[in-house]
Amino acid sequence: MIKREFQIDDDALMVAFGERLGHLLAASEGAISVYLQGDLGAGKTTLSRGILRAFGHAGAVKSPTYTLVEPYEFTDRILYHFDLYRLGDPEELEYMGIRDYFLPPNICLIEWPERGAGLLPEADISLHIEVVPVGRVIHLQSRLPLAL
């Protein structure tokens, strides 16, 4: 298990960090689950925007708070961005066929993964974004060999 911390001073650096991580994800094989944790407004969606940029997405990235999931289709992969903040019961994930999203070669970014406890696969990469007096600190844990 790899454990690292990164100081992020502003939104531009958060997007750049996400883009760097996105390039590593694009080069990886198989299904990948990425947990994005942190308080409201910590930067989870901003980080997701950077990851999506690495795959070539140039449009807006919104948090799928009300739809639960937003798919982004690329040439050889689909990236699913989940926001489970408003999930009433983890069993709702079962009704939407949650297991199908985690099939290879899909990548799943999951905000508020603790709300889907028991139905989500173990995280390949877990990012906890902590708000600090100057910017953010990203606490990364990864089961994948990442050169960040």
How is this fold's topology laid out?
Layout: E1 2-8, H1 11-27, E2 32-38, H2 44-54, E3 69-73, E4 78-83, H3 91-95, H4 98-101, E5 107-111, E6 125-131, E7 136-142
Parallel strand pairs: 2-5, 2-6, 4-5
Antiparallel strand pairs: 1-7, 3-4, 6-7
Helix pairs in contact: 1-2
Commentary on this structure:
Helix 1 crosses helix 2. The chain contains 4 helices and 7 strands; from the N terminus they run βαβαββααβββ. Helices cover 25% and strands 30% of the residues. The protein is globular, with a radius of gyration of 14 Å. It has a 7-stranded mixed beta sheet with strand order 1-7-6-2-5-4-3, covered by helices on one side. Strand 3 and strand 4 form a beta hairpin. The longest helix is centred in the first third of the chain and has 17 residues. The chain has a single domain, classed as P-loop containing nucleotide triphosphate hydrolases (Rossmann fold). It has 148 residues and is α/β, with parallel strands linked by helices.
